[in-house]
UniProtKB/TrEMBL annotation:
It comes from Belliella pelovolcani. Its EC number is 5.1.3.1. This is Ribulose-phosphate 3-epimerase. The gene is rpe. Binds 1 divalent metal cation per subunit. Pfam families: Ribul_P_3_epim (PF00834).
Length: 217
């Protein structure tokens, strides 16, 4: 199966958001990645429920909503209602992760877990069969355009081993600093979904850039 591409609208032109979403609709994009930041869990504020709803009104691709917020449980239903198909919460923000994952699934969404660069994939062993998608942060969360962290490669390989050991169907998503140079290496390590923000939206031809990423074996 070919790699899935999830452009992050955090890097899009907010003043022309409808146009940007329509561009993604016309591309080989698989998911539209929506980064929600609260200025508490991460040192930045992005956007919230109203913008997610606005994106959903124009999107023809599933919304992959990444909650970089404290107390995510309070907002699961609101983001489901706003149009999320996938909801990812941070391991570091969830005291009762298993319960949170079940709550996401009960809403009819796919359940994702995001891991900060310092968080070990070994911590997911006991819940890997309950997770539809693991989002490995390959930069420190909070800002776009950061330098890719090289330790991501062995982390992805180890997570793939855990998934196979447990007979899970979990997808591995990489978020941060993805480009045409590291994408093949990430794919070889076991990545299933690549989040690309600046690399897509800052390129002269975003549709062609997505096509190029999508073609990576």
């Amino acid at each position: 199966m070919s790699v899935k591409i999830a452009p992050s609208i955090l890097a899009s032109d907010f003043a022309n958001l409808q146009k940007e979403i329509e561009m993604l609709n016309a591309s080989e994009t698989d998911y539209i990645h929506v980064d929600i930041m609260d200025g508490v869990f991460v040192p930045n504020i992005s956007f919230g429920i109203p913008v997610t709803e606005a994106v959903k009104r124009h999107a023809k691709k599933p919304l992959d909503v990444h909650l970089m917020i404290v107390n995510p449980d309070q907002y699961l239903e609101a983001f489901k209602n706003a149009g999320a198909a996938i909801i990812s919460v941070h391991y570091e923000a969830c005291t009762h992760l298993h319960r949170t994952l079940q709550a996401i699934k009960q809403l009819g969404c796919k359940a994702g877990v995001a891991l900060n660069p310092h968080t070990s994939v070994e911590l997911l062993k006991d819940v890997i069969n309950d997770i539809d998608l693991v989002c490995i942060m390959s930069v420190n969360p909070g800002f776009g355009g950061q330098k890719f962290i090289e330790q991501t490669y062995p982390k992805v390989k180890r997570l793939k081993e855990i998934i196979l050991e447990h007979g899970a169907s979990t997808e591995i998503e990489i978020d941060g600093g993805v480009n045409k140079d590291n994408a093949p290496l990430l794919r070889a390590a076991g990545a299933d979904v690549l989040v690309a923000g600046s690399f897509v939206f800052n390129s002269p031809d975003p549709i062609q850039t997505i096509k190029t990423l999508k073609a990576i074996e």
